[in-house]
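User: Teach me something about this protein's shape.
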Amino acid sequence: MFFHKINCVAWIAGVDEAGRGPVIGPMVVALVALDESRIGILENIGVKDSKMLSPSRRERIRKILEEILEYTAIRVVQPREIDEAVEGISSENLNSLEATVIADLVLQALKKIGLSRVYVDSPDPVAERFGRILATRINKDIVVVAENHADIKYPVVSAASIIAKSEREKIISELKRVYGDFGSGYPSDPKTREFLKRLLENNRELPPIVRRSWKTLSRLM
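Assistant: First, the predicted structure itself:
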């Protein structure tokens, strides 16, 4: 187990993403880290899975998190990167791309802090498989814990989910100012489907915010 070389503090990290499923907009992956002995603080401020919090509550908690977390890093994965992964061009699949992004975030963190464990909300229903892939790519002497619904079970992952969700919502708000109101960006959203349908019917070039590899487009066409 790896400990911080300066003060022998055991640091743990949590990783989660927001926006894996939408047909519009990027996916945001966040890593947060803190001294394991301070986990109770996260629980005290009401940290929980971001989907269980209102947008305003998420923003309030994020501001507190930015003050108490020792380390935070965010990676915005653009639609083009996602398309290339889904189509098998740059990665084997989307899970592989996500594992690469997470591994990069962990390795960057290790240059600045010592980590003993990393908790990850697994995108793969077989969490152990994703954990093995991730551990291989990190290839450092730290424990990787990948579990389904880790954002509910581990406060440090919940904190990462709040940061990721909040950051994506800010990006989506900016995109709407540029492209108009496309709803949530999820395929199940009627406003999102109507936005895409209008683009297709008017033979307009799809903007770079749209994931072309999603089946939503072929169904609308």
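Now, about its shape. The domain at 11-178 is CATH 3.30.420.10 (Nucleotidyltransferase; domain 5). Strands lie at 11-18, 27-35, 71-77, 117-121, 143-147. If you'd like, I can walk through any region in more detail.
User: That's plenty for now, thanks!
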